[in-house]
Amino acid sequence: MTSSSQLGSTNITMQFDLNRNIDAAARDVQASINAARGQLPTNLPNNPTYRKVNPADSPILILALSSDTATVAQMYDVADSILSQKLAQVSGVGQVFVWGSSQPAVRVEVNPTLLNKLGVGLDTVRNALNAANSNAPKGEVSGYGRNNTFADNDQLFTADQYRPLIVAYNNGAAVRLGDVADLKDSVADVRNIGLANGKPGVLMPIFRQPGANIIDTWTACARSCRICSPPSRPRSN
Questions:
Q1: Given this model, what pLDDT does residue 152 score?
Q2: Which of 55, 63, 81, 163 is most buried by a 10 A CB count?
C-alpha cells in the first residue's frame, strides 16, 4: 500500500498479487471502505471511492474539451459530474481522471485591516458563509396522520449573490460581505491549467481495467460519448 496526500484529497494505491481476482479484490476494498466510513470526518465533500486500474498502464484515450462560449470551470463541472461518471460505467474502463481545472467556486479575499476597524473577526465571516449555504429543512406541515417537510437549497453560486450577505452589525449598521472583501467567480484550485490545441481546456485521460481489451474499451468509450468513429480493427491477410 502506498498513499499520496494533497490539499483536499488523499489517494491510496493497493497492489494485489497477480493471481488475485480483480473483482474479488474490489469487493474487499469496498467492504473496508464501508467499515471505515464511520471513522471518517462527517464533512467530507464526497464519499470515498475506488478504481480498478494497473498503475503501470498508460491511458488508452485522452479526451480534450474546449469551448469558445463556456468557461474552463463550466467545462470541468460537466466533465467531472457527467462525462467522467458516464465513462466510468463503460465496460472495460477502470479509471477516468479530469485534469486542467477544478470545480467552479467563488473566491473571497477579505480585508483584515478593515475587519479589525469594524470589530469583526474572520470566524464571523466564516460562520456567515457557512450559514448562507445550509441545506436543511425549512418547515413542516402536519395533520391528518401525515407530516410533510419542506426543504430548499440555499446554496449561492455567484459572487454577485454573496456580496449583499450580512456578516455582522457595527453600531446598528449592517456589515455586508461586499463591503469588507473582494469577490470574484473563479475555481476551487487556481493552480491547475490545461491546454487543448493551444486553447484553455479540460483533459480527461481514460485508463482501462486490468485484463480488458484496449480496442473494445476504446470503441465503447467512443460510442458512449459519440465523439468520433471508432477505429477499425486491423485486417489479417
A1: 66
A2: 63
Burial 16-44 (b: 16+ CB within 10 A, else e): eeeeeebeebeeebeeeeeeeeeeeeeee
DSSP track, 93-114 = EEEE--BS---EEEEEEE-HHH
Helix (H, G, I), strand (E, B) or coil at 198: coil
Nearest to 6, CA basis, from 228, 222, 188 = 188
H-type helices in 106-158, by residue range? 112-118, 122-132
- The cell numbers describing 68, all together, are 469558445
Q: What's the distance, CA 33 to chain centroid?
A: 19
> Which of 92-101, 117-126, 133-142, 153-162 bottoms out in mean pLDDT, i.e. has the lowest?
133-142
